Amino acid sequence: MADLPPTFEGFEWDRGNRAKCQQHGVSIEEIETALTSGAMLILPDTRHSDEEDRLIATGSGISGRHVFVVFTLRRRGGRTLLRPVSARYMHRKEIAVYDQARAKAENR
Questions:
Q1: 14-66 pLDDT, tens per residue?
Q2: Is residue 97 within a helix (H) or strand (E), and if so which, with residue range?
Q3: Rounded CA gap, 108 and 104, in Å?
Q4: d(CA 12, CA 14)
Q5: Which of 78, 76, 84, 75 is nearest to 57 (CA)?
Q6: What is the spatial distance between Cα 17 and Cα 41, in angstroms, rounded to a whole number?
Q7: How far, in Å, are 46, 76, 78 from residue 37 at the CA level?
Q8: What is the layout of strands, in order, in the sheet containing 41-44?
Q9: Secondary structure of 68-79 in the HEC alphabet?
């Protein structure tokens, strides 16, 4: 498990990433809740984007459903903002892997 950077000061939303994130039926509120819930797993996304560092977060949204979010951190006006790039609900097998990783981290 990992926490978001302590300098994370808000979200960056615009027409582009809002539409991309919501195309799989995940609401903005669901995404923001999953990213701020604290019980999430964050990993680097090394397979995508040569232009900026991307991260993958898995966690639970406001509905309790497991959410998979790809995001990046950007500096805007002296603030660090989290910009969601894509989001979807997790599949059953992904949830099982997430639950195992979470249990392992809690037992440390």
A1: 999 999 998 999 999 999 998 887 777 888 887 766 778 899 888 888 898 99
A2: helix 92-106
A3: 7
A4: 7
A5: 84
A6: 21
A7: 24, 24, 25
A8: 8-11, 79-89, 66-76, 55-60, 41-44
A9: EEEEEEEEECCE
